[in-house]
Amino acid sequence: MRGLVLSILGSMILTGGAQAAPREATGAAAEAGRFDGAWTIEVRTTVGSCPALLPDAIEISGDLLVGTKTVAATLASGRMAHWGYVEGDGAIMTRFTSQGGHVARAHGNLRGNAGQGAWSSSTDMCGGSWRAHRGGAQRAERSAVN
Known about the structure:
The chain is an alpha+beta fold. It is about 35% helix and about 40% strand. Strands 3-2-1-8-7-6-5-4 form an 8-stranded antiparallel beta sheet, with helices on both faces. The termini are far apart.
């Protein structure tokens, strides 16, 4: 009898979760892409001393970190790999791995056209803060071309 009750409760929980999922997904879909665009990053090291482990610009598309044209050359040459995403509420999580195995992780929040957060590197025993502004990376790339 106890097994039957647990089975029924489990089914109710799974069914309730399945019914709630579409409502949550619909709200998330409406927010998707809200932070898309080119972002300029200013990095400050406050703990330790290490090389520049974060790029100075990123591109977000479909709430995923995709890099920029400038960063693409660095990525294509194998000098850096990246991964990251932005949640619907602006929470951002990223990881950058540079040649030689240097790894930096950054997290924080984006709001409107600005963002800020913290970063750290367990491979280099350093860390600090970062600030970001949307739109500056595109201007910087156009200036580099001219």
